[in-house]
Design goal:
The chain is an alpha+beta fold and 552 residues long. Helix content is 27%, strand content 29%. It has 3 domains: 255 residues, Bira Bifunctional Protein, Domain 2 (BirA Bifunctional Protein, domain 2), CATH 3.30.930; 105 residues, no CATH class; 94 residues, Anticodon-binding domain (Rossmann fold), CATH 3.40.50. The chain contains 14 helices and 31 strands. The strands form 10 sheets. The chain has a 7-stranded mixed β-sheet with strand order 3-15-16-24-19-18-17. The chain has a 5-stranded mixed β-sheet with strand order 28-27-29-30-31, with helices on both faces. Helix 2 packs across helix 10. The two termini are 33 Å apart. The structure holds glycyl-adenosine-5'-phosphate. The site of glycyl-adenosine-5'-phosphate has 19 residues, from strand 16, strand 19, strand 24 and helix 10.
Length: 552
């Protein structure tokens, strides 16, 4: 698929999401807000199913009595639900207060702000054309938040050329990131929305945490932050969980919840949002077994996406290079998906699986840590030789009553985004094929091939006609499915082919039609969304049959 095909595909997906009520721009009637998204009725069901699948697979269906396949030992998994606004000291000790920053550049003229590493560009030489004539050749670095198509568009605008002259542009070198251009050369940089060169500021740090104020006084001392990750709520409760829940290591503590990051350039639909949901596991184990657990979780989390319908072709496990790792970590891998808004061969992060050593528990005990001159972690000190940010002073170590040893557990952290996973499932599900319409003519059909476990609606019930006892029987079937807790739709409007297509487009796996045969012989037709196969099933068996298929 070419770049244009991929971006066309993305446009189709975004438009389907809006048209069928999966995802809307937040506060749309007021013009929306960049980086915030609302889920409509179908999107809400879909995302809830993604979260439920994660919670069931990681926690409620987890068997702590035996080691699952590939795991070094049996282990426990429990959940917590912690607050979005935490004691600000948490963020000082975790490092987010000082270090959770992105570099940004501002455009003084366009009054826009960009993430430094999101701006790409290419050197080019050309004469600028305007009503006044042509300038001498200038050499500039033309940029865009994007790749070659966007950079070309900006170059054409800068040189005053029509689109048809794109092949006359005299490029130098390849597309590179703005981060590779020294600040001394910024006078030659044409910003992504600029009409002249030299309007970008030097890169500056920008903390991504949203600030808020606690209480009525509203002084600086009352400043608090919306959590940028759910993980810290787990670390600060480690001791509470261990002391209260009769759990032993190895132990996973899990949390699903909203996180907030004031992203400089939110983009690519819901992929990079300012408010989003995370599904995080902090897995505590002995230091000596941590490498094995890291490998286990990396493989298991990759397999989770495949099990819910992501094609292996579109999903990679990217191990970070050893030089990218913090010294206390023996591994970090990203699970990445080939989102259609990226060029072919590029992948976007769905989940990070990180070996975090004892960094987090120690930081909350001792104060913010930094890597010392000897390469070891040490408490960061202020100018008075005191800890820069004091830890809780609480003992967060763990006592193993079998080995009689006390130690600070090591942590493996599989950290997934619920919105990114939902978006990947949407992109993966989008499919166009040919299917016969009501007159038997082959027509393009849009079908969302969601795995039945996450499909927003599991089945739709259609009375063939609005008479002859069909609606009565159809309502019986519909209510029996509803009573079994299956999310089911009822549709009596329009030709049967049109009804199939409406359900295909939202990914309903099975359509159940009540017709003359139902009245005469007590059978209904179940039609499969993907194979288009139709089978007859007895009315009284429909609910059990749909349940059986859902559990397959
Ligand atoms: N506790 C570790 C942590 O938060 P992260 O890689 O920054 O690690 C984990 O985030 C996951 O959260 C990402 O893999 C992604 O799925 C999701 N995520 C992070 N930032 C996001 C954003 N701005 N919009 C949507 N999802 C985001």
């Amino acid at each position: 698929m070419s770049h244009t095909d991929r971006s066309e595909l993305m446009d189709k997906i975004v438009s389907l999401c809006k048209r069928r009520g999966f995802i809307f721009q937040d506060s749309e009637i007021y013009g929306g807000q960049n980086g915030f998204w609302d889920y409509g009725p179908l999107g809400t069901e879909l995302k809830r199913n993604v979260r439920d699948a994660w919670w069931q697979d990681m926690i409620s269906r987890h068997d702590p009595l035996d080691a699952p396949e590939g795991a070094p030992a049996a282990f426990q998994m429990v959940g917590v639900e912690t607050t979005i606004i935490m004691n600000p000291q948490v963020w000082k000790c975790s490092g987010h207060y000082d270090l959770f920053v992105d570099k940004m550049v501002d455009c003084k003229v366009a009054k826009k702000r960009y993430r430094h590493d999101h701006v790409n560009g290419r050197w080019i030489i050309g004469k600028r054309k305007s009503k006044e004539g042509e300038t001498d050749p200038v050499r500039v670095f033309v940029t865009a938040v994007g790749e070659m198509p966007e950079i070309t568009a900006q170059a054409l605008a800068f040189f005053g050329l029509k689109k048809k002259y794109a092949d006359r542009l005299e490029w130098e070198g390849e597309v590179i990131s703005l981060t590779e251009i020294p600040v001394e050369e910024y006078s030659s940089v044409v910003g992504p929305d600029a009409t002249e060169a030299g309007t970008l500021t030097e890169p500056r740090d920008f903390n991504l945490m949203f600030k808020t104020i606690i209480g009525a006084l509203g002084t600086e001392d009352d400043t608090a932050y919306l959590r940028p990750e759910t993980a810290q709520g787990i670390f600060v409760n480690f001791k509470n969980v261990v002391d209260s829940s009769r759990v032993k290591l190895p132990l996973g503590i899990c949390q699903v919840g909203k996180s907030f990051r004031n992203e400089i350039t939110p983009r690519n639909f819901t992929f990079r949002s300012r408010e989003f949901e995370q599904m995080e596991i902090e897995f505590f184990c002995t230091p000596s077994e941590s490498q094995e657990w890291y490998t286990y979780w990396r493989n298991r989390r990759y397999a989770w996406y495949i099990g819910l319908g992501i094609d292996k072709e579109n999903l990679i496990l990217r191990e970070h290079h050893p030089e990218e790792l913090a010294h206390y970590s023996c591994g970090t891998a990203d699970i990445e998906y080939a989102f259609p808004f990226l060029s072919k061969g590029e992948y976007g992060e769905l989940e990070g699986v990180a070996h975090r050593g004892d960094f987090d528990l120690r930081s909350h005990m001792e104060g913010k840590l930094k890597i010392g001159d000897d390469g070891e972690l040490e408490v960061e000190l202020n100018e008075h030789g005191q800890p820069k940010y004091r830890g809780s002073g609480k003992d967060l170590s763990y006592f193993d009553d079998q080995t009689r040893e006390r130690f600070i557990p090591h942590v493996i952290e599989p950290s997934a985004g619920a919105d990114r996973a939902t978006l990947a499932f949407i992109c993966e599900a989008y499919y166009e094929d040919e299917a016969p319409d009501d007159k038997g003519n082959m027509k393009t059909r849009v079908v969302m091939k969601f795995h039945p476990r996450i499909a927003p609606i599991k089945a739709a019930v259609f009375p063939l006609v609005k008479k002859d006892g069909h609606p009565e029987k159809a309502k019986e079937v519909y209510r029996s499915l509803k009573a079994a807790g299956i999310n089911v739709a009822y549709d009596a409007q329009g030709a049967i082919g049109r009804r199939y297509r409406r359900q295909d487009e939202i990914g309903t796996p099975w359509c159940i039609t009540i017709d003359g045969d139902t009245i005469e012989n007590g059978t209904v037709t179940i039609r499969d969304r993907d194979s288009l196969e139709q089978v007859k099933v007895k009315v009284e068996d429909v609910t059990a049959e749909i349940q059986r298929r859902l559990n397959e």
